[in-house]
Amino acid sequence: MIKHVWTIVSSKASIDTQSNNVSLFNVLEQINIQDLVKPEFVLAFNFEVLTCWIRENPETPCKGRQRLAFIDPMNKQLAHIELDINLAQTERARNRFQINSLPLTIPGRYFFRTDLQIEGESDWQTVNQYPLTVQFKTSPTEVEEAEVTAEAVR
User: What is the arithmetic mean of pLDDT over 32-52?
Assistant: First the structure.
């Protein structure tokens, strides 16, 4: 059986080739969008979503699939991607999603939902929901184009 350990969204991740340890930079919890022109749009910026998986029983090899879905505050799925999880030869695995845009609809709490499908089964189970708050901020003056800032909440 496969067990989900963590899902984290960050602006950048680095994996050390010698130790295989991961370093995460600017973990994202909130995005502020300044001077919004239209409510629904695709935000262009680079970020990464990393997930970590382990064998529930260290002695039992297993495989499955991961689905990462992006859900808006109205519980509408805006995007998703799937990757294999292969724990046949190793006890732990990480999946790294490098993403360059994000569809946004309204301000509020979005989620990166992590689902798991065990090999040989048809059902998916939700194992994690990572929250990302999106705030639309307007300034007193109207602007022709939106100025976008993504900031990590410390």
Answer: 85
